[in-house]
Each structure stands twice: as structure tokens, then as C-alpha cells.
Specification:
The strands form two sheets. The protein has a five-stranded antiparallel beta sheet with strand order 1-2-5-4-3, covered by helices on one side. The chain has a three-stranded antiparallel beta sheet with strand order 7-6-8, with no helix packed on it. The chain is built from three helices and eight strands. The longest helix is centred in the first third of the chain and has 9 residues. The protein binds fe (iii) ion. The site of fe (iii) ion has 8 residues, from loops. Fe (iii) ion binds next to loops.
């Protein structure tokens, strides 16, 4: 959801995405061989990132309760903060240790607006909340804060389902 898609070639139109193996999305892409990408704009709030980007879809329907916005080809998107949507059909997978790189043929692409795409830098500077100064552990993946002096070794982030190894002491 944040700068993960890269265009590799124009003809055929191919893109790549790198997905962390411990994410639910990874298993979904591996199993189905297809995926959709939403290109978010600078209007996207932290809630959008947290809800759609970081929260695991394993146990929840992330789209429950939000308006059904779809392109003619059926691609779902969040209105107001998405400037493009695209679909990929995986043609190659590359094992890259913690991540798998999926190379895909673009099967559908639609521009929704000309609003500026959000970059990592913009996200860190303007969207991601600055952590509060108190004792605790923060999830490096999604920003979830565990309040307490010591983080249990078997702790699992309730939002993104990453384990204690992906937490760092709050600075
Ligand atoms: Fe997390």
C-alpha cells in the first residue's frame, strides 16, 4: 500500500511487489496468483494506512462497513484518497528471504484522479503520528504501542499479527 509496487517494463506491462512472508497478503497472493494495488494520495489519513495497509485481513473483512466503490472491472478502492487502482497476475515469484518478490502482468489499471501519490517520506513527515514519550514497546510494522516495561516473548501484535521480534523499545 505504500510504495510497494514498481513498474518493471512497459511492454508487456509488468510490475513487482515485495511482500513480507509473515503477512496474510503473502499467502493470498501465493495461493490465488493475483493481487490488487491501490495507489493512495496525500489525502490518505493514518486510519487508512492502519486499517488497510497494516491490519491483517486474516480474521476480519477490512472492507466491512465502508461504501462499495468499484471500477467498471470490479476493483475495490477507498474513495477520496485513491488516485489509481491496478491488478496484477503473477508470472514469477522470487524468494528474497523475509520477503517474496512477485512479478506480475498488469491486467487492469485505472486512473481515478490526478491527486499526488503519497510517498514514504510524506507518510513519515505528515501522516504517521509521532510516538508519545512513555514507557512501552512499539511495533515497527504498524506502530501499535504495547504499554509496559517488558514485552512478553510470545506477544503478537493485535493489529498486524507480527511477533515480539518486530517490536522495539519506545524511545
Ligand atoms: Fe503491528
Amino acid at each position: 500500500i505504500i510504495n510497494t509496487a514498481i513498474q518493471l517494463t512497459g511492454s508487456p506491462c509488468r510490475i513487482s511487489i515485495a511482500v513480507n512472508k509473515s503477512n496474510y497478503t503473502h499467502d493470498m497472493v501465493l495461493r490465488t496468483g493475483v493481487f490488487n494495488v491501490s495507489v493512495l494520495t496525500e489525502e490518505a489519513t493514518f486510519w487508512v494506512f492502519r486499517h488497510y495497509g497494516f491490519q491483517s485481513g486474516r480474521d476480519t473483512d477490512k472492507f466491512a462497513g465502508i461504501p462499495e466503490n468499484r471500477t467498471e472491472n470490479g476493483l475495490r478502492y477507498i474513495d477520496g484518497c485513491t488516485n489509481a487502482v491496478l491488478s496484477g497476475k503473477v508470472v514469477q515469484t522470487v524468494d528474497c528471504g523475509t520477503h517474496t518478490l512477485f512479478i506480475a502482468e498488469v491486467t487492469d489499471a485505472k486512473v481515478l484522479s490526478n491527486d499526488k501519490s503519497v510517498t514514504y517520506q510524506y507518510y513519515f513527515d505528515h501522516i504517521k503520528p509521532k510516538p508519545e514519550k512513555k514507557k512501552g514497546w512499539v511495533c515497527k510494522i504498524c506502530g501499535y504501542v504495547y504499554e509496559g516495561e517488558e514485552l512478553p516473548a510470545d506477544f503478537v501484535c493485535p493489529l498486524c499479527k507480527h511477533g515480539a521480534e518486530d517490536f522495539e523499545r519506545q524511545k
